[in-house]
Amino acid sequence: MPSSKDIILTIAxxxxxxxxxxxxxxxxxxxxxGELLILLGPSGCGKxxxxxxxxxxxxxxxxxxxxxxxxxxxxxxxxxxxxxxxQSYALFPHMDVANNIAFxxxxxxxxxxxxxxxxxxxxxxxxxAGLGNRKINELSGGQQQRVALARALVLRPSLLxxxxxxxxxxxxxxxxxxxEIAQIQKALGIxxxxxxxxxxxxxxxxxxxxxxxxxIIQQISKPLDIYEYPANMFVASFDGSPxxxxxxxxxxxxxxxxxxxxxxxxIQSFREYLKCNFKVTEVPEGEYILGVRPEDILIYNQFxxxxxxxxxxxxxxxxxxxETLVHLKVxxxxxxxxxxxxxxxxxSNDEVFISFRPSSCHLFEKESGRRIEFAQ
Length: 376
Known about the structure:
Number of strands: 20
Helix content: 10-25%
Number of domains: 2
Strand order of the largest sheet: 6-7-8-3-9-10
Strand content: 25-35%
Largest sheet: 6 strands, mixed
Radius of gyration: 25 Å
CATH superfamily of the largest domain: P-loop containing nucleotide triphosphate hydrolases
Distance between the termini: 23 Å
Structural class: alpha+beta
CATH architecture of the largest domain: 3-Layer(aba) Sandwich
CATH class of the largest domain: Alpha Beta
Number of helices: 9
Shape: elongated
C-alpha cells in the first residue's frame, strides 16, 4: 500500500442529502497518486453524485475534500485542476476533432502555437493521430470516446474523473476501449477515478475498487481481494457472474446442517470448506449464511464418501465454450455450478452429487451479513 505521502485526494466525513434522503453517508476515502480507482455499484448507490462532488459540480452537505493537501471543499469546479469525461461524451458536433480537443486550452488562453502542439500530442496519445480534421459525426463511438478523453487529458489535470465512459458502446467495442483507456492511464501515470456499474470493467481496469451501496462504501480493496475476500454478503453477491450461492447453515459441536439441502455435514468436513489462510480448528455454534461461488460447487456422477454434500438434479446446461454453467435443483433450491470445461458426461435430468471445493466457502453472520474472519 502506498504511503500517506502518495495520497493525492482525501475525502473525509462527506455526507450529501436531498431533503431527508441521504444519498451519501459518511464517505471517507483516500486516492493515491497514479492509481485508477473504480467507484462501483448498482444504479442509485451514489457513485456519480460522489464523482460530481469531487469535481465541484455539486456541493456536498458536509465533509472535507483535500487535493494534494489543499482544501478544495468550497473551490469552484473550474479551479479544481480536474478533467472530466462524461458518459454522453459531450462533444461539440459543429467542431472538428482538433477544435473539440483544443476548446479547454482556448478557454485558458493558451497561445495558438502551443495549442497545436498539445492537441497533436493528445491525438497521438489516444491513437487518433491524423484525424484532427474529421467531423465528430464521422467517427465511431469508440473514436468519439477517445476524443472526449483527449480533451480532458490535454489540460494535464491533477485528477481525471470518468463517469460511465464506456456505457454507450457495444460489448465488443467496450472490451477493446477499456483496455486502451487503462493502457493510456498507466502510460501517463495520471490519477483517475472512474465510475461504473459493470463489474468486469472494475475488475479488469482498476488498481482498487470502492464498492458502494445505498450511499455507503461497503469495501475498498484490490479487485481480486473484493472477489476473494468480500466484506459482507452484498459485496459477495454483487461481484461475480453468475452470482454467489447462499445457503442457511446451522452449526453445532459435531455437525453443520445446510437448511436448503436438508443435508448434514460433519463439522470437520465443513471446516475444510471454509476460505481462510490457515486451517480452521473451530467454528462457533449458531446460525450462519454460507456463500459458495459457482466455480466452487463440484459435481460428481456418483457418491464420493464424505465429500458429497447432497444429491441434486440437473435442470439445464449452458455450454459457453471455455466453460459450462450447470443449473441444479437440490431439494427445493436452485443453484448454479460453473465448470471450466465442456460437459459431455452429463445431461438434463441426470441425478448427481455435489460438493464444495476445499478452502473456498465464505461464512457470513446471519443478522449483519458480515463475512467472518477467523482468528488464528
